[in-house]
Design a protein that fits this description.
Distance between the termini: 55 Å
Number of strands: 43
Shape: globular
Oligomer: single chain
Strand order of the largest sheet: 36-37-39-38-40-41-42-43
Structural class: alpha+beta
Largest sheet: 8 strands, mixed
Strand content: 25-35%
Length: 727
């Protein structure tokens, strides 16, 4: 039978429509959506890596470093990997140039690193000019003197530029810790060595934790399980003692700062003076109510004085070192939330406050850097919107702020090891590359020039989820339990949402300080697991309650001495809102969270047992008396001084109220929320006759790593499928 042309056209059209429909119906797997998944990288927005060589922007790729022309931003090759490896003498010495750097703005040297060496290559001369051993677990290299500090077998060493190794300590052990992060990574501490600007002196932490109780962690991988105890100072118990040493590379001598008895004190936010002769340190009492900014002579260790103090009846929490003005060594900026919001204050080195630089009912998230030519600073703040991060230039003369980006989304998504964003600015501070995202923009990178409104687009990522059946992501606000405060939420509706149907709903919760779940990023910062659940027919709801970060001091401190109580009240306002929606099945509401979110999950399940049918709590805090000193006492004081608060917030007393299906998941070698928490809760449930489910990941820490994370999220999903999906 012959087919006419019109019939052929109709068949082709039907085939195309069918193909398009099938393409739009592609489904996600956890291999696509979970960071441990085999396909996760391909399903994440594409990125490009940039860095500065002085004021020249460099695009770093695997095989080459590409220089951007300052006039038209066109790229040309500056140096390639093949030439570097030829000079090194090995074909595959350096596998990629995406982590290369240009430590000297006025020199044609590139820093690369192989598996064993740190190398400076002069691309103009075509030769290697410096090589040094690298690859230690903990190391800190300074470009000023090219010396490298590192820890080996618990002791601290320095290798100088000439290749000589200097052993600074000999008594290092699991009880005496050198050159590593102290105070359990609180107060913005992320490392334990600090080079002076001239690279000739090294300040370092020494932590004596011999007096701290051992927590009996167990290694299950040995033929017979062996003990691997962890030093864990619990709230109200004896804590470690920290001192600060200074090693002089020229004299070979080590001097300790004369800070006095370190018992029950925190030494934080170490900063060198620009002339490398003084050390500034923010010191706190154990109660964390008083902060002192102190100054020490780096040569002899003597205390010069205390130049600034700050008190808060609840707690102070310094998270950033002072920052000296690059053009005036006698002035520095201090970050403080003493007026209710984190802002910048200008001081002189005598401790006199010269002015408050930023002010308003919003938070400075980061001091990005300086522009000497314009006498200005660049900050990242929430001024535009509490769920946004935007870049502003601030005049130091009059405090005038100028928006640098497009005023939407979350910007400056380029982090250094310390969590800050200074690497995005050029050497002069006149230019910045801005890696940002918006709810409907996976990623965009723009070049900003201070003083100019026009921005140049360098890169725009395609939507990696194109062709998939993607759920609807939305954001809104409700009132907190106080009736006045706006709280932001994210909602992920089921794929192929039908408003006439009723859907099982899962509340994902964290709720604690130092985190916010709802941001104006791609899909409103939605986690991949939420999309996976939406694909399976669930509605997801995520609310940032009072106590979460970046909303100001009072917003966070409202939970003081009673963790979980205000947070629960706000989360229940979220439940109240959900119950007002016709498409939410109020008989099928579940809750899931990890760590603080695990604490919140069990708190909600046991304080409101008739509301939540199913819960999954991962690594949950059960009783704050088993949590660490620094974090626990900041928000709860000690069990000795706040017995009512500890009793009120303990979930042991709530075990008897459990009614719904609850699964508790625990990494069996968790050094953050130790297994004593969940095991004690299970014991309390046994005593009261309630029936939680329990699953462990042997040898895993607080969060599941790699492929185990895929397994974990499949297990979480299956629990809701088994007990919440159907009535």
């Amino acid at each position: 039978m012959k087919i006419k042309n019109k019939q052929w056209a109709l068949l082709i059209l039907l085939a195309l429509l069918t193909t398009t429909t099938m393409a739009q119906d592609k489904l996600f797997s956890l291999e696509d959506l979970n960071f441990g998944g085999m396909n996760y990288r391909k399903m994440s927005p594409e990125n490009q890596t940039y860095c500065w060589w002085g004021d020249v922007l460099i695009h770093l790729t695997k095989d080459a470093c590409l220089k951007l022309n300052s006039k038209d931003n066109k790229e040309s090759e500056l140096v390639n990997r093949e030439s570097i490896n030829t000079a090194i003498g090995m074909d595959e010495a350096v596998w990629s140039l995406t982590s290369a750097s240009f430590p000297y703005p006025d020199s044609t040297l590139i820093m690369v690193q192989s598996s064993k060496e740190r190398i400076l290559y002069d691309w103009k001369k075509g030769k290697v000019t410096f090589r040094q051993a690298a690859g230690h677990d903990t190391e800190d290299w300074t470009p000023a003197s090219r010396a490298n500090a590192y820890v080996e077998e618990c002791n601290l060493f320095v290798e100088d530029a000439q290749g000589s190794t200097h052993q600074l300590t000999t008594d290092g052990s699991r009880e005496i810790v050198y050159g590593q992060s102290v105070h359990r990574d609180e107060f913005g501490i992320y490392k334990g060595t600090f080079w002076s600007p001239d690279g000739q002196r090294l300040a370092f932490y020494r932590m004596d934790q011999s007096m701290v109780s051992d927590y009996p962690q167990v290694n299950h991988s040995t033929r017979i399980a062996t003990e691997e105890p962890d030093k864990y100072p619990m709230a109200g118990e004896t804590s470690h003692k920290v001192t600060v040493g200074v090693y002089d590379l020229l004299t070979g001598k080590t001097t300790y700062l004369q800070a006095g008895d370190p018992t029950d004190r925190y030494f934080t936010n170490i900063q060198w003076s620009p002339d490398s002769k003084r050390i500034y340190m923010q010191e706190l009492n154990r109660d964390q109510t008083d902060m002192q900014l102190t100054v020490y002579d780096a040569i002899n260790g003597t205390k010069i004085g205390t130049i600034y103090t700050e008190h808060d009846d609840r707690y102070t929490e310094p998270l950033t070192p002072i920052t000296f003005l690059p053009w005036d060594a006698d002035k520095f900026l201090l970050q403080s939330q003493k007026d209710g919001y984190n802002h910048l204050y200008l001081f002189d080195t005598n401790g006199k406050q010269l002015k408050q630089v930023t002010k308003g009912p919003w938070v400075v998230l980061d001091l990005v850097g300086f522009c000497k030519k314009r006498n200005s600073i660049v900050i990242l703040s929430t001024e535009a919107n509490p769920i946004q991060n935007n870049l502003y230039e601030v005049s130091l003369a009059n405090g005038k702020r100028t928006l640098l980006d497009n005023g939407r989304g979350c910007h400056a998504n380029v982090w250094q090891e310390d969590g800050r964003h200074t690497s995005m600015l050029s050497a002069s501070g006149m230019k910045a590359y801005d890696n940002f995202t918006e709810p409907d923009v996976p990623r965009c990178i723009e070049l900003i020039t201070l003083g100019k409104k026009k921005r140049a687009t360098l890169f725009t990522a395609q939507d990696p989820w194109e062709g998939y059946n993607v759920p609807e992501y939305s954001c809104g606000t409700i009132k907190a339990a106080d009736g006045t405060t706006d709280l932001y939420y994210r909602m992920v509706k089921p794929t192929n949402f039908d408003p006439s149907q009723k859907y099982p709903t899962v509340i994902y919760v964290y709720g604690g300080p130092h985190a916010r779940n709802v941001e104006a990023r791609w899909h409103y910062y939605s986690r991949g697991w939420e999309t996976y659940m939406a694909q399976k027919g669930y509605l997801l709801f995520i609310l940032d309650n009072r106590g979460s970060k970046d909303r100001g001091r009072d917003f966070e401190q409202v939970t003081f001495r009673q963790l979980g109580q205000v947070e629960m009240a706000d989360q229940m306002k979220g439940v109240e809102y959900l119950k007002s929606l016709p498409f939410v099945d109020t008989d099928r509401i579940g809750v899931h969270g990890w760590s603080y979110g695990g604490f919140m999950t069990i708190s909600l399940m046991t304080n409101h047992p008739d509301v939540f049918k199913v819960g999954v709590a991962g690594g949950p805090v059960i009783d704050w008396k088993w949590y660490e000193v620094m974090y626990g006492e900041r928000y709860m004081d000690t069990p000795q001084t706040n017995p009512e608060g500890y009793e009120k917030t303990s979930l042991l007393r709530q075990a008897k109220n459990l009614k719904g299906k609850l699964q508790i998941i625990q990494g069996l070698n968790d050094k953050t929320v130790v297994p004593q928490h969940c095991l004690s809760f299970i014991e309390a449930c046994i005593q009261s006759g309630t029936q939680p489910d329990f699953f462990t990941y042997p040898s895993e820490p607080h969060n599941m790593r790699g492929r185990k994370s895929v397994h974990l999220h499949e297990r979480i999903t299956q629990y809701f499928e088994d007990y919440l999906k159907e009535k």
